[in-house]
Amino acid sequence: MTERRAAVVTGGASGIGLATVTRLVTGGWRVVLADYNAASGEAAAAGFGDDVRFVRTDVAREADVETAVGACVEAFGHVDCVVNNAGVGGAFGRLTDIEVDDWDYTFAVLVRGVFLGIKHGARAMRGRGGSIVNLGSIAGLAAGAGPQAYSAAKAAVINLGRTAATELGPERIRVNTVCPGLVVTPLVGDGVGAAEVMAGAQPWPDLGRPEDVAEVIAFLAGDASRFVTGEAITVDGGLTAAGPRMQEAYGGDPGKRGLVGVNRGTTGEGATVRRAE
Ligand SMILES: NC(=O)c1ccc[n+]([C@@H]2O[C@H](COP(=O)([O-])OP(=O)(O)OC[C@H]3O[C@@H](n4cnc5c(N)ncnc54)[C@H](O)[C@@H]3O)[C@@H](O)[C@H]2O)c1
Asked: What's the N-to-C CA distance of the chain in angstroms?
């Protein structure tokens, strides 16, 4: 019989984390669901039976993360994957008004939490190898997709993923970061209004679901991605690919007006324009 894989999923009680636990269990994994929220964590874990253990965890606390990783070794014999998913919206408001404690809380959950998951996950994977998957965000790639502290923290997570992959690659421990766009979860509200907001920005017509992100996390967790490390993968329905939409300011897309042709710039040769068939 092939050995069953085991993972620690932080923030596994809700949203993307819960979808990830569900996807991994469906794929034959056993999971330690590590979450701050004991009520939702226990309730979620109970639905999976023996394949999932809940461990109450604050990812900002080193002892808690060490305990969660240790619980996975104790219950399932080893750790093959850590999904550093736990997250909060964190500090918001103008930079000139934000309290240092709120800024530090944001970074403690989003960055220190990922560091600790990498540190203790990689220690448990020594000699065996494994995969670490961090939750970044498109907010970590540019401004405009999240509050300042959140965005800066997610940028740190993306870079930490690359440096960790470089350090841990020789030990066959892969580290990748998944950067979702807008995914309808409790973190972003109930989705009311999301469709209208995204319609003008996201090329893909459907809103992102936690399952869409969980599928990519599961791919990165398992051997199918064995040569992928140090990567930051956007899962955003083409939101970032669509770019700054400057074309609208420069007269719009001729294609949308049924025009096709070639602009020869300042060569002295004129443009060719015709109506598309
Ligand atoms: N939903 C989105 O649109 C979106 C987009 C980009 C990135 N993300 C990222 O995906 C991850 C999951 O987000 P979600 O939308 O599923 O959120 P969610 O609020 O549905 O779930 C987050 C979970 O993390 C837990 N958590 C919070 N602080 C914790 C802590 N200190 N220790 C342990 N657990 C803690 C919560 O209790 C909750 O169960 C986050 O890192 C978030 O930043 C989400």
From this structure: 60
